[in-house]
Amino acid sequence: MRVRENVPISSLTTMRLGGPARFLIEVETKADVASAYAFARSQNLPAVPIGTGANTLGHDEGFNGVLIKNVMTGITEDPDNPGIITAMGGTVWDDVVEYACKKEYTGIEALSKIPGLACAAPVQNIGAYGQDVSQCFYNADVYDSETGEYKTLSKEDFRFSYRKSIMNTTEKNRYFIIAIRLQMQVGRMNRPFYNSIEEYITKHNETVFTPLNVRKMVSAIRAEKLPDPATTASAGSFFKNIYITEEEVYQITSRGIPIHRGNDGIKINSGWLIEQCGLSGQLIYGIRVNPKASLVLINESAKSFNELAAARNFIMNTVLEKYGFKLQQEPVELV
């Protein structure tokens, strides 16, 4: 394993903010994981898993702890259990999607081009355009930092919900994900798709809806609307959408607020609320509200987490005052 000291969090996260992390350890084997946690204990420091930092925010004072990154890569398929694919945690998530689509498996094609690693995908149950990881998740190999044991956790163990699992709620930072398994099926998504995909289909006269072609469409949509975190400082969707109950539908739609019904429930697009508040495209404390997708915040000139927090609070307060909805931040903070 590789141990580095005083590594700027700004170099480890796509929002590119944050002071130094006391240690960064890259684990290259399963055995390295236990060794990394043992090192953290020997230093009397907390240990936190980190991926590409696409959903992580650093504070200005840095992090007095040990960040542990999975760099184990590879995708395999069990010959005795067709459709069960294993992705090592350090594998780029989009490589997993591409592999599945080329095998004509459906279930994650709409999750194309979501930045991050395979190990991060189930942590917040990533989702887009009607699909999320929980729908095809099978299990994960993990290290339990509380007991010092290697375990396999099932889908039920993860207790998935919208952008949640035990990994970012009740058992946050307890488990280190070594590898994930997905139960895939040959097939394709059914129409109607989400509005942006349907609009793309109409505009480009698409008639083929295989996993590979849906992946192509989703990739094109994301490329047009969303900044590439490799070249533009951002953290993907900064705010979560708002889920409502059936009983709330009439009250909300009567106010002129559109809703979307999907397999994952009834939701209000938080980006729409931000747009209606006149914030789309605005530069706030050095943070730009993406004019093409208002859920995304771009770090255009902010130099500190405090500036990002000020921009976040301004957006949240503006939406709250106009619509009465309290937006929830999606990226996690290193504290």
Topology:
Blueprint: E1 2-8, E2 20-27, H1 30-42, E3 47-50, E4 56-57, E5 63-70, E6 75-77, E7 84-88, H2 93-102, E8 105-106, E9 127-128, E10 131-132, E11 137-144, E12 149-154, H3 155-158, E13 175-183, E14 185-186, H4 195-204, H5 211-225, E15 234-237, E16 242-244, H6 249-253, E17 260-262, E18 265-268, H7 270-276, E19 283-284, E20 287-289, E21 296-299, H8 305-323, E22 332-333
Parallel strand pairs: 2-5, 3-5, 4-22
Antiparallel strand pairs: 1-2, 6-7, 7-13, 8-14, 9-10, 11-12, 11-13, 15-21, 16-18, 17-18, 19-20, 20-21
Helix pairs in contact: 4-5
Key phrases:
four-stranded mixed sheet, single chain, globular, Uridine Diphospho-n-acetylenolpyruvylglucosamine Reductase, domain 3, Uridine Diphospho-n-acetylenolpyruvylglucosamine Reductase, domain 1, 8 helices, 335 residues, alpha+beta
CATH-derived topology of the largest domain: Uridine Diphospho-n-acetylenolpyruvylglucosamine Reductase, domain 3
Number of strands: 22
The averaged pLDDT comes out at 95
Biggest sheet features: 5 strands, antiparallel
Biggest β-sheet: strands ordered side by side in the sheet: 6-7-13-11-12
Low-confidence stretches: none
Secondary-structure element order, N to C: EEHEEEEEHEEEEEHEEHHEEHEEHEEEHE
Q: What is the chains' assembly state? A: single chain
SSE-based structural type: alpha+beta
The domain tally reads: 3
User: What is the number of helices?
Assistant: 8
Indicate the CATH architecture of the largest domain.
2-Layer Sandwich
Q: Report, as a whole number of angstroms, the end-to-end distance.
A: 24 Å
Estimated radius of gyration: 20 Å
